[in-house]
Write a structure and sequence with these properties.
It is built from no helices and twelve strands.
Length: 170
Amino acid sequence: MLTHHRKPVCLSMISTDLPIWSVVETAGTLYQRDTDKFHLVLTAPPLISCEVGNYLHPEDTLSQPKNNFFPPSSPRVLWLEISPHRVIMTMQGNGQVSYRHFWELGVYGISRFWLPDESLQRHEPIRLRNFTKSFIISGHPFPNHLRLEYELWAGKLQLGRYILNLEVQN
């Protein structure tokens, strides 16, 4: 039987060696799929659009059209599949950047990123590998804390070390 609970959630991701961090505080819906398998669905705010203008003459930017790298979007949906041994996180961005990560302790998981494309042609995702160094999950009967430490790799090039932390309030 599928049960669900609405709970406050804080999801953060930081890099331990790069100036990268992100925090999402929102309400999430926790679905119990099995005795120790859960899905957590939450909504994250839209990506911030970057605007390009004439920075030499700020007063002229009012009359010039601005180019957005990412057009305005609706909130993004984050979906985490949580079990005692693995986590899969998918983000769908309504035509924006989307990704899917697979983490399991001691395993090279796959991280896929789909970037926005104005053409109607199908494009392949960017594929990276992540190596999960630490996997901690706690809470019973529902998970209330998850911490993953992992490295992100493109071939033989390490793209940083990261910590994903999830707090689900009871």
